[in-house]
Design brief:
The protein is α/β, with parallel strands linked by helices. About 45% of the residues lie in helices and about 20% in strands. It has twelve helices and eleven strands. The strands form two sheets. Strands 2-1-3-10-4-11 form a six-stranded mixed β-sheet, with helices on both faces. Strands 7-6-8-5-9 form a five-stranded mixed β-sheet, with helices on both faces.
Amino acid sequence: MTCQLNPGIESELKRSIWLLLAGFMLSFAAPAAAQSNYPDRNVRLVFGFPAGPDAGVRLIASKLEDALGKPVIVENVTGAAGNIAADRTARAAPDGYTIGILTGANIVLRQLLHTKLPYDPLKELVPVSLSFRFANILAVHNNVPARTVAELVALARASPGELTFGHNGTGSVTHLSGELLKVMAKIDIRGVPYRGPSEILNDLLSGRISMTFNPPGLTLPLIEEGKVRALAVTSRTRSPFTPDLPTIDESGYRGFETTVWFGSFVPAGTPQSIVNRLSQEMATIMALPDVRDRFLKSGWIPGGSTQAEFAEYIQTEARFWAKLIKDTGIQPID
């Protein structure tokens, strides 16, 4: 399939991330300016999705508040699949009082898929620590007569354009999961954008949409209650939370893999001493037994990393998504 990637953006992304990583290495070697009075007021965590999916972020905020000794307020800035929250974080004062809990889509996918962006994630945002990651669950409304991915694909082929999938906005992982299945299975299903996972599940429950690739935290309880039906997970290997649920890869579509990650970011120019402090605190929080237990029960794999480790993780993700977008021929978005 011919690549439809925005010309030059892939190589520029890799170059930018390499320069970013090199800059981190240099900053570690240089002495950091003292910020002995940080923090002396409230800190805010900017999150790009509504209440409900933010349970893990609020737990992080609570623990960070204990560590910093100042209130940490979660600010839900919804819309554009987290893009607005990322832009809000990038535009904030670089003083450590605004931390974005952003997705890989905000950092990597926007550069690969969008021809125009209100912010430059590689120049205006500095990664702090990987927070958590998870595979989405492919779930369908109970009236959809399919109990396997193969049956769903057969149904879609029999009725082109009739099945719909809800997603978090163009360019989100939930959107790309549907687009990838469309390409690999050669089916016609229609994407429907929403402001967040809760709204998607509301319409899935009512039957307004046929299916979704949604996070496990909100979807697993509905599956267990029999309100929606799970068909597969989007990771390459089975999820430890749903070991009996097959992957889309093993369901006949080899190479299918889409996962979601969230990490903490601050505006470029934030003093390195503050970045170091936040990175250490975030890593410590994600290693706490009660935090790990809470995240694992919600279907999320807790992270926790140094700044350098997180930068390397982003670099790996950039290569993965650049290849996936190239191989599937997904076109850039104006």
